[in-house]
Design goal:
By secondary structure, the protein is mostly beta strands. It folds into four domains: 123 residues, Sandwich (Jelly Rolls), CATH 2.60.120; 107 residues, Jelly Rolls (Sandwich), CATH 2.60.120; 118 residues, Jelly Rolls (Sandwich); 77 residues, Sandwich (Immunoglobulin-like), CATH 2.60.40. Helices cover 5% and strands 48% of the residues. Strands 1, 3, 4, 6, 7 and 9 form a six-stranded mixed beta sheet that branches. Strands 11, 13, 14, 16, 17 and 19 form a six-stranded mixed beta sheet that branches. Strand 33 and strand 34 form a beta hairpin. The N terminus is likely disordered. InterPro entries: GBD_T9SS_assoc, Secre_tail. This is CHU large protein. Keywords: Signal.
Length: 472
């Protein structure tokens, strides 16, 4: 009976610690590799120990198990062993060429379809019998069709934002310089588009992993480069451009944020002070619907706090017919407002979101509406409201304000009729420049003036009023 117990014990022990069937390369266990993640469990507990060279080039006692797979398509393969106990080697045949070797993880690149690959999972003597973390995951990434500039994918552009998904894990990584001028290994995919109008292009990658570079052609000139986002300005209508979307090799296999948004902005007509759009502020708060400021040019200039940054702006103008205030309300601190009395002058005042330009004399003013580059492409609260408030009028002021100018428009002569005695009359241009001063109230000669709009100021008993009239 004693001999029977010993026999059973030895049999059970041998079964419990049986040598793995894939303990050597010739008996490698086949696994199926696809674009989905596959998890493979292994056991090195009773694998044979051998003195062999590891990934670091040093000879150590290792135990290993072997697997094999056939590459389903052209591309790359990522093997994740979770931690440094698990070393991974890849060869093209038993006793063949070592393709790659790594601790904890391994990446195989540029593997052709139908290629047979052998995987060696090995642990050193310290960890080979530890039952924890005895598994690895494996995933293949197919080479994308737009892996090169010549095979770029076209993106039709309109006035609406488009989301573009992409796959980059199977791309060929090459050494190059990114936007930060740092030389690293990058993987990229390519797109092209035709600009539908003169203007700007905005790319939003949602993460710093996604980087962009805009070219005028394959092997052409790099026009713009950005990480996470890119605003390319001054692009030309009906012109073709190339977009390189790229990631560092550390991020190319990360499965999140594999998309970007693209939006074209038509060039704004009021991008400069000289092309300012006229406004007519009244006591009633009036909404101003602005064009997308993202279509403006980028200027490295000062903001309200005299800080020099990249800003985009649009311009408006208005004329004060009498001394008063201009009030502005908007929905965000991103909106900045700066007032000038001349396109080549110095700013009078500046504020963000809400504010007022107080006690403005008669004349024409130019309003700069601007945002920092980081906020310029957001449609949030891009519009604003504007109103004017005149000085509080006395009874005499109200009477003087009721004076009439005729004819209006006028060609050669102008007359004024008022319930108060007019002591003096001034005619000014819209910039506030004095052109005529007279005490006449009838048949005032105006034929010397050019065709256009003018301001007439009527003075009486220490007060005045201003009115707008037109010279034919």
């Amino acid at each position: 009976m004693k001999h029977l117990y010993i026999f059973l014990f030895l049999t059970i022990t041998n079964l419990a610690f049986a040598q793995p069937v894939n303990d050597n390369c010739s008996n490698a266990e086949p696994i199926t590799v696809s674009s989905e993640v596959t998890t493979v469990n292994f056991n090195t507990t009773n694998a044979s120990l051998n003195n062999e060279i590891g990934c670091d080039g040093n000879v150590t006692t290792y135990a290993d198990v072997w697997y094999s797979f056939t590459m389903p398509f052209d591309g790359n393969v990522v093997i994740d062993g979770s931690l440094f106990w698990n070393n991974i080697g890849a060869t093209n045949a038993c006793n063949g060429n070592l393709l790659a070797c790594g601790s904890a993880e391994l990446t195989l690149t540029n593997i052709s379809a139908n290629t047979n690959v052998l995987i060696r999972i090995f642990r050193n003597f310290t960890y080979y019998q530890n039952p924890q973390f005895q598994s690895f995951s494996i995933q293949a990434f197919e080479t994308p069709t737009n892996d090169t500039c010549d095979n770029s994918i076209n993106i039709p552009l309109g006035i609406l934002q488009t989301q573009v998904p992409f796959e980059i894990g199977g791309s060929v990584a090459n050494s190059g310089k990114g936007c930060s001028n740092t030389t690293l290994d990058y993987a990229d995919v390519w797109y092209d588009f035709t600009m539908p109008f003169d203007g700007n292009l905005f790319l939003d990658g949602n993460t710093i992993w996604n980087k962009f570079e805009l070219y005028d052609a394959c092997s052409g000139t790099s026009l713009f480069c950005g990480e996470d986002t890119l605003l390319a300005v001054g692009l030309t209508d009906n012109t073709d451009y190339k977009i390189r979307v790229y990631r560092s090799v550390e991020d190319m296999f990360t499965p999140t944020f594999l998309n970007f948004n693209i939006l074209a902005y038509q060039a704004t007509i009021n991008d400069s002070c000289n092309n300012a759009i006229p406004l007519n502020p009244t006591e009633t708060l009036t909404a101003v619907t602005t064009p997308f400021i993202g279509g403006s040019s980028i200027e490295n200039t000062t903001g309200c706090t005299n800080d020099v940054k990249d800003y985009l702006d649009i311009w408006y103008s208005f004329t004060m017919l009498e001394e008063g205030n201009i009030n502005i309300i908007s929905g965000t601190v991103w909106n900045l407002f700066e007032l000038y009395n001349d396109c080549n002058g110095s700013p009078i005042s500046c504020f963000s979101q809400n504010g007022a330009f107080n006690t403005l004399p008669i004349g024409t003013y130019y309003l700069r509406v601007f945002r920092e580059l980081a906020f310029a492409t957001s449609p949030v609260s891009k519009d604003f409201n504007i109103s004017s408030t005149a000085k509080t009028l006395s009874t005499d002021s109200i009477q003087l304000d009721s004076a009439s100018i005729f004819p209006n428009p006028a060609l050669d002569y102008l007359s004024v009729q008022s319930p108060l005695k007019i002591e003096e009359i001034e005619i000014l241009d819209l910039n506030g420049k004095l052109l005529l001063s007279t005490k006449l109230t009838e048949n005032i000669p105006i034929s010397f003036l050019q065709k256009g709009s003018y301001i007439i100021k009527l003075f009486s008993n220490g007060i005045y009023t201003s009115k707008l009239w037109v010279k034919k």
